Amino acid sequence: MRSDLSQNKHWLRDLIKASWNVINFSRRVFLNIGFILVLIALFIIFSASQTAPIVVKNNSILTLNLVGDIVEQKTFVDPYDEVMADFAGNRNQSPEILLIDVLDVIAEAKDDNKIKALVLNLHSLKNTGLNKLQEIAFAIDEFKQAGKPVIAYGDYFSQSQYYLAAHADELYLHPMGSISLDGFGRFNMYYKAALEKLKINAHIFRVGTFKSAVEPFIRDDMSAAAKEANINWLNDLWTIYKEDVAQARNIETSNFDESLDDFLEKLTQTNGSFSLFALQNKWIDGLKSHQELDSYLAEKYGKDVNYVNFNHYLASMSQQLEMEPMDKVAIVVAKGTIYDGKRKPGEIGGQSTAALLKQARLDKSVKAVVLRVDSPGGSAFASELIRNEVEAMKQAGKPIVVSMSSMAASGGYWISASADEIWAAPSTITGSIGIFGMFLTYEDSLSALGVTTDGVATTELNGLSAVRALDPQMGKVIQLAIEHGYDQFISLVAEERSISKSDVDKIAQGRVWSGKTAFEIGLVDKLGYFNDAIDSAANLAELSDYDIKVVETKLNPMEQFMQELFKTYGPNLTDNFDIRRQSIQSLFGTIATQAEKWTEMNDPAGVYIYCLECDTLQ
Fold first, then answer.
1. Cα 207 to Cα 202: distance, rounded to the nearest angstrom
2. HEC sequence for 216-275
3. pLDDT 10s digits, 13-40
């Protein structure tokens, strides 16, 4: 009887297990079928959107609603992961907008008879460099010069948002809104005391009095040398910002408050009203609610006025096909940290970026190249691979011009040094000609936990490890290699810039410079912007009729398919995306981001040319 009961229990258990396997298998099947159906539905939507042209109606106002960060090149994100993150509410990065798309949209609208005015809706504009804002402001000014008005409105304006809004003919703020103009600053987190408490040993190797990239690991505060260098370029940027905005608004630069006492005194006069404060300071032309703005625009342009937003207008432009001339000026974008190997768009890989330059070099239709650099540097080896292709371009007889964006420092300067010409905006951050290596060891941390490391090797060169103490002689070897790398760097700059090596050493030392100062000391050839560099490259190639060709990494068919699907509905998910986070999340996010950045560094020799200060501009 007991045996029968036991057999019945086993039978029941096996039945339950088999049933669960069937249920689990069915669940996976249904989920996969559901996913396939979603893809099919999205493909149908995508196909329909391709066949239905976007029509811009007469008497239209273009709304420049910029959502996210303005960048030189979009960071590659797997579209499926992006969509799933959106649906789950776990999206962890701001949307990105190409600078070239913004400039093209404004330029096209300027000559479009259907567009009567431009409205700047900037409340979702996030991070971007000052030089990118300047280029957009130039496009806005040209739009105005065509006789078309520009109106800006906002509930609140950040400093970046206000820079663009200031270039409008009319600028309005919500009665309960405010404007934040707090200048530029550079504050780091420092880990020396924390590393000591965790018994982690930081072995630092560097050359350059101002090379502060490793300071967070060896100090608990910013060094006097770093403060001196940082305040100089920060003041340059703040002066440029104030002068540009003051000229656009026809106000004095003294309207910008730089002390809390002055700010408090003015705010007291308005009984704490930030909007009245902005009005009295002539930062805005008036106060309007959303409804009052709608009524004002309807009265000004008629109730039958139509509105077209940035994404739709951009899509309508892509439908226009034109015959392309044979001769081309190629654009290769080098945006992000420089890593060894291959990287997706939005980052720089020594092999992948060099391959893009090689592709332009071998393309017979390409007569000149503009290397658009927006990078704080990274791997020294990867930087040299890219610079080798710059040299090969020159040897092939094709002019190559560097256009520096927000930053082109350390490795960003290394890859620029050999170009025929270097262009920088006055607000570009460049220089940082220095080099460093860093090696963390955890032998004391492990020892505190009772973990030790021991073994044997055939030579004293073997055994370099993060879990063993660094031999002082090996430390000298690494330092010698770093010093050699620095000598290579300043020798390269001296040769390419026709400056004596000793003079380069004086302006190097890891020091960061603004584009304005870099021009004065000979690190760049000319001050100007992206279009100026393109025109110069065309002139060097003696081109009068040419087209622009952006050389990009080609995605595989599946990646292309998924990206096109994402484009169909992606903006709808991101238009209302709010990237604000709680302060504690932001704190740990900052630490995690910095930690991830250092752990991803992969130079074969562990030698880096990186500008920590440039993180301010990213």
1. 16
2. HHHCCCCCHHHHHHHHHHHHHHHHHHHHHHHHHHCCCHHHCCCCHHHHHHHHHHCCCCHH
3. 666 666 666 666 666 666 666 566 666 6
Model confidence pLDDT, tens digit, residues 549-572:
999 887 665 555 555 555 444 444
Pick the CATH number of 328-573+580-617 from 2.30.40.10, 3.90.226.10, 3.30.40.10, 3.40.50.300: 3.90.226.10
Angle at 134 between CA 240 and CA 174, to 5 degrees: 90
What are the φ and ψ backbone dihedral angles of 181, each rounded to 5 degrees?
-120, 90
Alpha-carbon distances of 572 from 38, 73, 102, 122, 566, rounded to whole Å: 17, 21, 19, 17, 10
Where is average pLDDT lowest: 51-65, 89-103, 237-251?
89-103
How far is CA 258 from each of CA 180, 186, 262, 395, 514, rounded to the nearest angstrom? 12, 16, 7, 51, 21
Band (197; pLDDT cuts 50, 70, 90): very high
- Picking from 322, 387, 359, 329, the residue whose alpha carbon sits closest to that of residue 552 is 359
Q: CA-CA distances (angstroms) from residue 92 to 65, 85, 146, 583, 589?
A: 21, 8, 40, 15, 10
* Element (DSSP H or E) covering residue 156: strand 150-157
Task: Using alpha carbons, select from 437, 387, 360, 372 the residue that is nearest to residue 609.
Answer: 437
What's domain 60-181+257-318's superfamily in CATH?
2-enoyl-CoA Hydratase; Chain A, domain 1 (3.90.226.10)
Active-site pick, 124, 352, 405, 410 = 410
Is there a catalytic annotation at residue 410?
Answer: yes
**Quick check: do 60-181+257-318 and 328-573+580-617 share a fold?**
yes
Tokens of 20: 């669960």
Per the listing, tokens 């007469």 go with 58
Asked if the model's pLDDT at residue 409 lies above 90, the reply is yes
Q: Which one from 116, 211, 328, 549 is the annotated catalytic residue?
A: 211
